[in-house]
Amino acid sequence: MLPFARVSIIGLGLIGSSVARAVRATMPTVALVGHDADPDVRGRADQLGFCDDITDTLGAAVTDADLVILCVPVGAIGAVAAELKHDLPADAILSDVGSCKASVLAAMAEHFPARQIVPAHPVAGTEYSGPEAGFATLFKGRWCILTPPGDADPAAVMRVSAFWERLGANIEIMDARHHDLVLAVTSHLPHLIAYTIVGTASDMEEVTQSEVIKYSAGGFRDFTRIAASDPTMWRDVFLANKDAALEMLQRFTEDLTMLQRAIRWGDGDALFDLFTRTRAVRRSIIEQGQDDAAPDFGRTHE
Ligand code: NAP
User: Fold this and answer.
1) Is residue 188 classed as helix, strand or coil in its secondary structure?
2) CATH architecture designation of domain 178-266
3) Ligand 1 centre and the CA of 72: distance in Å?
4) pLDDT tens for residues 121-146?
């Protein structure tokens, strides 16, 4: 049996359109309604045809839904939840895909009872945005972390789990604050580092922009992919996950200072030991199927 029959997706960018496409591919009888605040995005989504209906207003998108998923930037979730207050059916479940969860849970809980709320974070994405960027297999084999409130309805949590499993994801259930700490180190800090490195390189005076681009086949190129991620989304992530991001940044700064000292004092053993440990982390990620083992991420060099 299907976990939900009528699903509404609010925000039709990379993640929203991927959810819609994945629902179409795995649960074709589900009625899919979409809405986006941007009329241009609504028009493009309509043409792409991944929803049965695209509504001009938020309220009209949810009146018949049994699952509503907010796929908007984290900073917009509170305002959207507030606007939905009078339109969300009393038996519908409200979920989201936001990259940080404590602030999202608090924003939803301001307007809805715990039994209706099951926040989720599919740990999958790309550096692209917009309805054209989505694809149906984005969540296949990836983790989707659910962070229900302490007094959530277990049946609602089971239905949302079953929904994401249908889309191909593996499910983990976690406390929202713990989620934010884990993701601060695995996702938010790496993005901040990438934004910094690419920013530093483009601000240098002795090395020209064209040299940076020309010789980017080194590690720099991989940072540029991450640093091309959506500016609105990432601004919101750092504002919403401020405490965990600052804590990880503090630890990172201390570790970087240790490396600085090792280089200054010629402590090759310290450098070698760390680089050996980090290589093993990469091996574990590949062994657990979370990345491709192909050299240089499978890029061709002919
Ligand atoms: P995206 O491609 O930029 O799509 C977001 C869409 O939401 C845009 O079309 C945006 O419209 C629309 N929107 C903004 N405010 C809205 C509102 N108040 N009501 C309705 N629509 C609104 O971004 P995305 O990458 O799909 O990210 C969406 C969510 O997924 C974010 O919460 C993010 O943290 C989470 N997430 C992202 C990734 C990733 O890798 N990208 C991975 C996991 C989770 P305009 O911008 O045109 O105004």
Assistant:
1) helix
2) Orthogonal Bundle (1.10)
3) 4
4) 999 999 999 999 999 999 999 999 99
